[in-house]
Write a structure and sequence with these properties.
There is one protein chain. The chain is an all-alpha fold. Helix content is 55%, strand content 0%. It has five helices and no strands.
Length: 111
């Protein structure tokens, strides 16, 4: 419905139910006990099960890359940090880019 409203340039967009979110209440009702049993068998009693994913630290990657660039040791940065930097400063790179390609893109951006 929302796509239809946008395509037809309508001002009113009906609220739609987000069906991509899991029905946590129903899942817990149907499998909550089984999941608790599983967790108690797999994880130690004092283990805190994370509920959220860790977000990428773009600021840290940007600072790291800028410092290494000034020092002339850019090639010592990991591929993961180079990718994070590129994403943080919005440098378009191929998903399968090699380290040399990432370094070239970063140097071009900074130089």
């Amino acid at each position: 419905k929302a796509l239809e409203a946008i395509a037809l340039e309508k001002d009113n967009v009906e609220d739609t139910e987000d069906r991509t979110k899991p029905d946590v209440e129903n899942i817990d009702k149907r499998a909550g006990e089984l999941m608790s049993d599983f967790n108690s068998q797999v994880f130690p009693p004092d283990y805190d099960i994370p509920t959220e994913c860790k977000k990428p630290d773009y600021k840290k990657a940007i600072t790291l890359v800028q410092n290494k660039y000034r020092e002339g040791t850019l090639s010592k940065i990991s591929v993961a940090d180079l990718r994070l930097y590129c994403k943080g400063v919005r440098i378009k790179i191929a998903s399968n880019a090699k380290k040399a390609e990432l370094l070239e893109a970063v140097q071009k951006f900074l130089g």
